[in-house]
Automatic annotation (TrEMBL):
It comes from Carpinus fangiana. Coiled coil: none annotated. PPR repeats lie at residues 466-500, 501-535. This is PROP1-like PPR domain-containing protein. The keyword Cell division does not apply. PROSITE patterns: PPR. Keywords: Repeat. Gene3D superfamilies: Tetratricopeptide repeat domain. Residues 398-563 form the PROP1-like PPR domain.
Amino acid sequence: MPASKAKTLSSLFRSAIKSKTSSSSPLHSPAGNAALEHIVPSLDTSSPTASISSISKSSVLPTLRLEAASDSEESTKQLSKEISSILCGGASIRSSGTDDKKSLKEVLNIPWFSSLSHNNISVNRKEVARERKQKWIFKSTQVNRFNRLITMCGQKLGTETAVQVFDRLGRETGPKEYNALIGLYIERARTSNDEDIALDQIHKAFRIFESMRERGFKLEEETYGPLLMYLIDMGMAEEFHFFCVVIGKENPSSLSRLGYYEMLLWLGVNNEEKICELCNYIAVDDGGEKSNLRENYLLALCESDRKKELLQVLEIVDITKLSPPNFVANIFKSLGRLLLESFAEKFLFAFKTCDCEAENISNFIFSYVVSIPNLAVEDVISKFKDFHVKLEVTPSSSSYKELITYCCYSLKVHAALDVVDEMCEVGMTLSIEVLDSILHASEESYDFNLVHRIYSVICHHGLKPTNETFRSMISLCVKMKDFDGAYGMLKDLEKMDLRPTSSMYNAIMAGYFREKNTYGVLMVLKQMKLADVKPDSQTFSYLISNCDREEDIIKYYEELQRFGVQATKQIFMALINAYATCGQFEKAKQVVSDKGIPVKYLNEIKSVLVSALASHGQMSDALDIYEEVKQAGYSLVPKAVIHLIEHLQSDGELSRLLQLFKELKDLDYWVEGCCRIILYCVRYKHLSYAVDLLKQLKDKFCDDELAIEVLFDEVFSLIGESESAHLQIGLDLLRVIKDEFCLPPSRKCLDFLLSACVNAKDLHRSRLVWKEYHAAGLPYNVLSFLRMYQALLASGDHKSAKIMLNKIPKDDPHVLSVIKAFQRNYIVSNSADGKKRKKKKKEMEG
């Protein structure tokens, strides 16, 4: 937020606070000032700010708009309806007026699960459990789901109503609920460009904050941290002081932690005097209770990467006396970011001398080496080893695991496996979870062949793999088309005392479907039957989605029922895609009308329908459903929006494309949508819109020049492959990049433009683009010489082409073959054109 806006917001916020507080009572009692003198020593504490205790408890929260709690049937129905709408995802998304008889029941003419019976209740539970596991794996499910529920309640009902809703449900509103609501308000304030809206959101957060105090809840960091960070980011020092005093009085144990935020505040506003004051405070070690405060000041200083101040403090402070180890690790991370290797080595030896635990020293080494900027993974590992040798310390198991995780995150799977080998050589225990992370990285990096090496480690060291480990390994074998290897792993399951699962067979089936190998799919089904493994919903979703005949869809659905498999979200999506593939678009649309679909999945399933219709040329129907979803107050999933943008490519659709573009919030989808619309603008010569979108791309990736270059190259690639009519807009975009964005064009950008000149047979523009290489500081290479030679030949300038030919190195046989191809194509073509012109001229003269 600009400084002027922050200043205005600060002024408005102070007015709002004062309107809720009494101006007659000073906030700081002598005792309060004494307790806080080291937390906010640099703030003016003499101003008569209001006392929190003077706020009327009855006026903190406004009157809620829900009806008063009563036993009336109408009130109960109203509350129940609102809660059901939230928890189920909003039933209003269903189209009003839809004829229930036109349901999927009629489409397939088979019975649906109108209710659960004793026979399928356990099946339903298993399906739900499987979906939950897939969605929430490696996450704290309870916390994440609860926060999502609170956010949804706050968005749909308002926070005050949400609080009352939870009370009336029999659950007392606690810190988790309040923290989630405060977080929601702060996020809204951050994303708003309107000062009044931002003020309103923070004022509401303050009121929730107040309500927590009045209900006797302890103000922990989970509550005050996000609020203080917002004030720090806005540079609102006076408001920061106000909250620190309130927090310190309510929770004296938080005083040392508030020091961390205070240092961040002065660093954020670049108040050198206050920063120096706090650094001096860190340096004076008088022991006692203030040591925790010093550590928090130092932690914030380390995160800021202010080299000068950090070195001054570290010259004085004995960091071997700091605790806990994670504080010290942050110091080493800062030393790594600042490239202070001599200091890192000095402190590591100090820890070695003071008999620090070897495991902690090893972890400090890891923290340092992985924080060094622009260091290749292989060099990180090398430096990690060198420090351990120099200090005569054995790498700890935890630092080894962290190093493997770092390699996996960087998708350097070979390096991760080398570290695994080292762990095994020194006799350290290896967990199957570590190998699971390497399997995941192998899939992400397309290093599928490493699955055999990973499996060898498992077998050699007698590790106990899980079913998921085997499924991942089978999937990797399938992705490199090693079906024999996949089946071989299935046979080895018995040796590991494991049984095959449907998910393992599903992985093989998916591979055969990708290869269009129907016989292979049938063999998988046969093997499942022989192994007595029942197909699950994923099995049937694969089978149904790959059907190209309506009778096959019905057959597999009947099989699904016979096995007692519950129709899940994936099944409904598969039905839509299958019907669309068969050209049965009306039946595909009827799928979303069935009452058997859980309401919470309906929006996602409608998004699949939009994608399927758009992909099969039914744009009018796809757009109608998009408008229906939008009018119901919902949004399509980003992938469906991308499908609409991708297939909405006729002239005159720019305004609709820009409307769709506004729907995209996720960064990856936003970038994809932006690029697609830029290409549309280039195709139909909408220069001003293309430039505006390019500016948005540049602003979004202002700190990533490589990303900007790649995105711009993608735009110019279309120009290079397009008709000659697009050459001028390409040159206009080149001018914008140079003059307005102040960026040099990339080599690929100019290569594509030169290709466009070839297509246009435009000699003048070819020469202009050729000069741009030199202006951009790009030396001519073999490819650029070849392209210019081609451009000169195409435009008929054989004399200049001959000169250019002499500059092309001819020691590569491939280059010679390209030259000969150009000559056959253009010299013969130009000669034929010349003969035709002469013949026509002669006929006219005759």
